[in-house]
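INPUT
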Amino acid sequence: MTKPLRTGIGVILTAIMLFPVYWMINVSFTRDTDMRADPPHLFPFNGTLEGYRAVLDQQMPYLGTSLIIGLGTVALTLIISAPAGYALAKLRSRGAGVLNFVLLIAQMIPGIIMAMGFYAIYLRAGVLNTVPGLILADSTIAVPFGVLIFTAFMSGIPDELINAAMIDGASRWRTFRSVVLPVSRNAIVTVSLFAFLWAWSDFVFATTLDGGGEYQPITLGIYHYIGNNNQQWNAIMATAVIASIPATLLLIVAQRYVAAGVTAGAVKD
Amino acid sequence: MTTHAETLVRTRGTTRVRRARGPWAAWAFLAPVIIYLVAFYAYPLYRNLDLSLRHYTVRSFVQGDAPFSGLDNYRAVFDDATFLPALLHTMVFTLVSIAFQFAIGLALAVFFTAHFKLSATLRALFLVPWLLPLIVSASTWSWMLNSDSGIVNYALSIVGVEQINWLTSPDWALTSVIIANIWIGIPFNLVILYSGLQTVPGEIYEAAALDGATGWQRFWRVTFPLLRPVSAITLLLGLVYTLKVFDLIWIMTKGGPTDASTTLATWSYRLSFGNLLPEFGPGAAVGNLLILMALFFGLFYIWRQRHD
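OUTPUT
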């Protein structure tokens, strides 16, 4: 196969793969009256911004809540997982093997089951339908992943660097904060990106733990939309387009981190 | 100052001090994650197990004084008319999804190993379905598969296929959610298999080409066998991830119509949260069965990874 031919085929395959994404964007601009047109409008000529106006009018609180939940989840995930990764990578301790094993297992537990346990706990603790409760639950998706990424990354930091800091009189905590963390920037970025994206995309915890909450994330915003006004598909798809922005940004800004994140943990080097 | 002294000793190569002092520092750094895992993993799982072993009503759920009922909830679940269909759908959904995800992902990975113009960009674009929030993918597919106005039925009508009620007919609901799930899972398989292909040394291909192997032979005789460890891991991980798919199915069909696309995950959710009268006990029991299945394949995956 010649190279230009490959590029051509590659473009066609990508176009097929991304057709649903295109369709979402197209429908978000389609007028209500054209929504059930036969044949369907393949391009949003004569389109409308009604859908996006609806998003501005109705979905802003949901988007704001999702942003706060996402940032909160990132902070919590980093605080828990970065020190743990350092300990597992550099401070040999007896339980390390067991802990690694537990973390791998933890990633495999279906979210819906965690949600049920959390529901029972939250109901009695009175944190059901609260944003902090949801942040805490969402962080369980990212913490095991975070520890694995930090462990893998920090194992690559030369011992000499850490020892040098400690000879200069720095405590372990100082060394961690002033030497290890700054050189682990890539790992911090990767973990933060995924923690944010998973919290932003979470539906399982949102619907079980925050279904009656005053502040609800965007995933529930879309879900209520689908349930309530089945006809206004341009508004639903416009919300979906807006909800996809973080994922898109992530891909544009941090492509290499994304691919690294997918493969990390799955395949041993 | 103790740490300073310790380091000095350590740099001189005395390992005894390291053993004596190291663990305490390590445990200080590990304490947050251990407390976290106990409080927010082990405890919810314990609560879930507890739920499945008691007879709950809404009142006793709030007050927490439900009577212990042993394995009654599990017995009730096994006897339920939904159990066998849900188990069957879970198996079909999982196996068909990962078979297609893997085959398509592998074909694309092989296709992308040849470096051509735009190949890196296109490969990155393939990640989009995997990164989108599931509610976005699920609602987009719902509209595309709409019986009257969906683009899929329109495209099929051009080639003379009658209208298919993708989401509302019991014959097609499971197929519909499988199609959407395959689409979501392809990127994951592509990325992992592609990175696996990168580790196959180029000289092996050159040698095979010198021996006169065709592209097809090269794939089956050289690439595929060398890729077997990575393939096994991809498939096992895919299995674990697909078993727990809930959002997609719930958003597209709610497991319906009449259980036609109900899996263990959606059934468990419906029992606990989907009805006016929640059945937390049976819901938790179904959930625990799902954990057992995921753990079975999960442990197999870890074992595989350790032995490669």
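end of record. Chain B touches chain A through 102 residues (CB under 8 Å).
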